[in-house]
Amino acid sequence: MASSGLQIVGFLLSLTGVCATIAATFMVEWEKRFQVKELTYEGLWMSCISTTETTTCEIYDSVLKLPTEIQVTRSVMVASLFFAAMGLIISVFGMKCTRFMDAMPQGKGKAAVTGGILFILSGLLTIMITSWYVSRIVQLLKTAHHLQSKEFGHAVFVSWAGGLFTALGGVLLSLQGCWGSKSSTESIGTNHTHGRIK
């Protein structure tokens, strides 16, 4: 029961991380640019210009015209979400609290490990690309015009948190899947031994 509880904790951590990663991917506050009388927010999919009176947003109409940091970050975040989605599906089959693959305990354990590894990969991709994006913004800050300053927005912190939770949950799932598979193998071996003695 304790091992099943640890799997649930790992799965919920990863699920929370994936939700945060989705939110960060579509948030508009990846970068903030301050000008004299307006504030510009730039996300991975759209930008918004805010003044004292109005706020207008516009979806990017051409990928090729986007800065390199936005193109690369958007692509990697989508890849991260793909791996996370695969991890969610596969780990459900491997968790002890579900009825899937009950007749194949070793296969169930391998499914949990595979799901956990996919979560770890997703989380690491999110953390690395977010850190790279921040480093690019910091470099741009050093060369920014004196009438225009840039800084990274709230989406960066949400993305970091999402990547961390996703990877941590994946670690718990992978470790518990390995332990669970080993325990099942030892249990099967013990049952065979007792059967021979009888």
From TrEMBL:
Keywords linked to the UniProt accession: Cell junction, Cell membrane, Membrane, Signal, Tight junction, Transmembrane, Transmembrane helix
Gene3D superfamilies named in the record: 1.20.140.150
Database matches in InterPro entries: Claudin (IPR006187), Claudin_CS (IPR017974), PMP22/EMP/MP20/Claudin (IPR004031)
Cellular localisation: Cell junction, Tight junction; Cell membrane
Membrane-crossing segments per the record: 76-95, 116-134, 154-175
Source organism, top-level taxon: Eukaryota
Signal peptide: 1-20
One GO CC term on file: bicellular tight junction
Known role: Claudins function as major constituents of the tight junction complexes that regulate the permeability of epithelia.
Protein name per its UniProtKB record: Claudin
Organism of this sequence: Fundulus heteroclitus
